[in-house]
Amino acid sequence: MEAAGLSAGPQRRSAGRRLADLFHGRPRLQVGALLAGPLGWLVIAYLGSLAILFAASFWHLGELSGEIERGFSLENFEKLIDEPVYRTITARTLGVAALVTVTCAVLAFPLAFYMAKTASPRVRGLLVVAVLMPLWSSYLIKAYAWRTMLSPEGALNWLLDPVGITVPTGDIFRLWLVFTYLWLPFMVIPIYAGLERIPDSLLSASDDLGAKPWTTFRKVILPLAFPAVVAGSIFTFSLTMGDFIAPSLMGSTQFIGTVVYANVGVANNLPFAAAFALVPVIVMIIYLLVARRLGAFEHV
Question: Which distant-in-sequence residues (6+ apart) come within 8 Å of 99 by Cβ?
């Protein structure tokens, strides 16, 4: 038994040595083995689902049976282009997404700049926790909370009633307010990280050369922080385009997400839902290409 144990030990060690020798001096093989799991998951779960979505967009429902027929057809895309209601829904969704993105950038930049360049380490840590804290609670809880606050008997109307102001009841305003609150942390953190990487010596040099604060912001800070702003806008813009829960809770105005959800769960028209779901994907691809053209990813 002792002899067997002694013989088994060297075999196990020699197998480990062979494996170590296989990776020794081969950095590409090491990186490939390290990334095999994450890349495999990305290809199968993410890119695979997009491929299925793309294929399903060319299917159609049978005229008599109402069942999905897996044949090539442009019927769904023709419907999206020809019927004005879907063009209106697309324009409305993109408009709200752009408005939310601009609002988040305007609100996030001063806060992120204060966190990165002015606040003490203690205050900076507290602000980071404060920005991230809304992400700790459930999305549904936050959406229902805003629905309650924006109701006619809600907290906001109660606070504004003494000055004779009421919260607008339009769905677009309510969604703009809710989406801005929901996605603001996704804009603050990238901008904060981008501003933190800007050396303080550049700001001091601009001040020594007599530049005014607005000139320093426009010619020094904003160009260097532009990739961070684009990174945050990718989150806010794409999340707003694809959301269907908040529009369903805040009113009856249709957005791309609500139409896709209705066609999947109610109308049982999966091919048309897949075709409409490709619209945000195409928009984001165009957005990324334009951002790359503007040099947004050169200093990331």
Answer: 176
Q: What's the token pair of residue 122?
A: 């203690």
Residue 108 resides in a domain:
yes
Taking Cα atoms as reference points, which of 127, 104, 93, 123 lies closest to residue 240? Answer: 93
Note whether 182 and 251 are same-domain residues. Answer: yes
For residues 47 and 153, membership in a common domain is answered with: no
Question: Digits of tens for pLDDT over the chain (300 positions)?
Answer: 445 444 444 444 566 677 666 767 777 777 777 777 788 887 787 788 888 888 988 988 877 777 888 888 888 999 999 999 999 999 999 999 999 999 999 999 999 999 998 999 899 999 999 999 988 888 889 999 999 988 888 888 888 888 888 888 888 999 999 999 999 999 999 999 999 988 888 888 888 888 888 888 888 888 889 999 999 999 999 999 989 999 998 888 999 999 999 988 776 888 999 999 999 999 999 998 988 887 777 655
Query: Residues 55, 261, 167, 134: is their CA dihedral positive or negative?
Result: negative
**Which structural domain range is residue 20 located in?**
2-56
Q: What angle do CA 230, 233, 237 make, to 5 degrees?
A: 145
Asked if residue 21 is part of any domain, the answer here is yes
Which whole-number Å values give the CA distances from 167 to 113, 126, 160, 181, in the listed order?
31, 31, 8, 16
* 64 lies in some domain: no
Q: Is the domain of 131 the same as that of 267? A: yes
For the chain, what is the largest distance between any 2 Cα atoms, rounded to a whole number of angstroms?
Answer: 93
Residue 78 and residue 204 in one domain: yes
Number of domains into which the chain is organized? 2
Both 28 and 163 in one domain: the answer is no
Q: Which of 193, 190, 281 is nearest to 230 (CA)?
A: 190
